[in-house]
Amino acid sequence: MISLVIEQNLCAIVFNEKNKQTARVLLGGGKLVGYTSNSFSIKRGKAIYTYDERGKRIGTKLV
């Protein structure tokens, strides 16, 4: 379960409810746009990429 996602050093860093880091995903020129307890999203160009708590991409949406 995700409790916090922050941008740091060109990465999105994910923490669980025990404040343990569970993932680090390169922003790749993008920006963190939000997160829930199960996923987080990064906007790059005209696409929003959604990842799970382990940093595995689970979806892509063109905007």
Keywords:
0% helix, Thrombin, subunit H, four-stranded antiparallel sheet, mainly beta
Structural category is mainly beta
Q: Give the neighbour order of strands across the main sheet.
A: 4-5-6-7
Roughly how many Å apart are the termini? 27 Å
Supply the number of helical segments: 0
Give the total of beta strands: 7
What is the CA-based Rg, rounded? Answer: 11 Å
Q: What is the correct CATH architecture?
A: Beta Barrel
Shape: globular
Report the mean per-residue pLDDT as an integer.
97
Tally the structural domains.
1
- Give the low-pLDDT segments: none
Q: How would you spell out the order of helices and strands?
A: EEEEEEE
User: Briefly, what CATH class?
Assistant: Mainly Beta
